[in-house]
Inverse folding.
């Protein structure tokens, strides 16, 4: 296996291209359970029929765990948005259509979104009263079992030359309420500093899926709290600023 062509670097992992394969190599000390869960998620999503890179093997390279998948030739949707700002509306429509397609799938063996969020809220740097309010609000939200990507953003979508779109990175995939997944994407746009795009995205998703915006907004504090337990301090501070669960009259 040739590992000299680095195509991406992420915290705790490096991604290489080796011919028609992508090799994601995790640093020593990375949780083995998380790596195997990511591979299992990807295999389960493959079975839904969504267009994703097929997993080929899970192996060890120089004492480090690695996941080997198909390499998909193309540009990320994020690159295309940057290169062709005049086509932003077209790309945003495609982005939302793909997310709605993800939510149309079921994968009964995936971890449950609600369980994951409850666990993360318990770890959040919030006082006990706020955590209790968030747990209560989460418990009151409708229980669904739709496939949720968990990190759905334009850099995780590859567009091939023939126009086919492939969705990458299923490490955060769960089954649950699609509106929580939408709230997560909205916050990712906001974290990137693009409020205009974030608002446009949410309006478009609500219109195409016939979802009330207020319903997604109810998820924002819950999702923000659950996402605040990882990442950089400034991101954590930003996310915690969304955690206001008091409904004022």
């Amino acid at each position: 296996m040739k590992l000299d062509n680095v195509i991406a670097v992420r915290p705790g992992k490096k991604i290489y291209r080796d011919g028609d394969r992508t090799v994601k190599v995790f640093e020593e000390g990375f949780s083995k359970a998380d790596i195997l869960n990511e591979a299992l998620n990807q295999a389960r999503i493959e079975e839904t029929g969504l267009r994703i890179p097929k997993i080929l093997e899970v192996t060890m390279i120089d004492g480090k765990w690695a996941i080997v998948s198909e390499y998909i030739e193309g540009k990320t949707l994020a690159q295309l948005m940057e290169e062709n700002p005049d086509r932003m509306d077209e790309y945003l429509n495609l982005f939302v259509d793909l997310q709605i397609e993800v939510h149309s799938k079921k994968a009964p063996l995936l971890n449950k979104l609600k369980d994951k969020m409850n666990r993360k809220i318990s770890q959040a740097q919030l006082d006990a009263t706020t955590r209790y309010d968030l747990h209560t609000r989460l418990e009151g939200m409708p229980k669904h079992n739709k496939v949720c990507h968990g990190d759905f953003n334009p850099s995780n979508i590859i567009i091939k030359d023939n126009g086919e779109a492939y969705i990458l990175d299923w490490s955060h995939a769960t089954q649950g309420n699609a509106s929580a997944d939408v709230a997560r994407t909205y916050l990712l746009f906001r974290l990137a500093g693009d409020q205009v795009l974030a608002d446009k995205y949410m309006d478009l998703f609500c219109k195409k899926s016939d979802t009330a915006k207020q319903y997604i907004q109810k998820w924002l504090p819950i999702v923000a709290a659950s996402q605040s337990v990882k990442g950089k301090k400034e991101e954590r501070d930003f996310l915690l600023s969304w955690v206001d669960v008091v409904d004022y009259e």
